[in-house]
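Lay summary. Proteins are chains of building blocks that fold into shapes, and those shapes determine what they do. In this project we predict the shape from the chain. Here is one chain we studied, written as its sequence of building blocks.
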Amino acid sequence: MSSSKTILDSVQVSKKISEIADTILADFPGDSIRDVAILGIQSKGIPLASRIAEALEKKSGFAPPLGSIDISMFRDDIGAGKSFQSIKETCIPFDIEEGALILVDDVLHTGRTIRAALDAVTNYGRPSLIRLAVLIDRGGREFPISPDYAGERRIVGKDAKILVKWKETDGEDLAILIEDTRIS
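And here is the predicted shape, written in a compact code that computers can read:
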């Protein structure tokens, strides 16, 4: 049996995205923001990447280039008996060799998705700098990977799950904590 509770509602999600954009702008002041491109990880990182790019444009007047990357073929569990998800589109409409790249995903947990994304990115080139932005850092790392920009840091149990819903794909902006309530 499981229970769920909202940890971020739509207003809080918007606020967290704005805070992430502010922190990025602090790291890339003035015209240095023009060296930044945003790359969302398929599929839940794409709405967040788009929202961060929009917030950066509103705050700086510059719309950073925006792309998406599929990591399916770079996962370390291919062939490990897990079901293979369909391959999605990778679209990088900018030169990955130039400037800084901000990789974006909804939730950071073990670090395995980000490790796969880093491998995928290097297939397309060698950015001068890669940073990581996530809406929620939930802890529980298996790889030494940490976000540079996190809207929310919330340590949750190994059996818990954080589900992020986006208006663009799910009809609403929401982050939900789902916990296993079975007693061992």
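What the prediction tells us: Residues 10-27 form the longest helix (18 residues).
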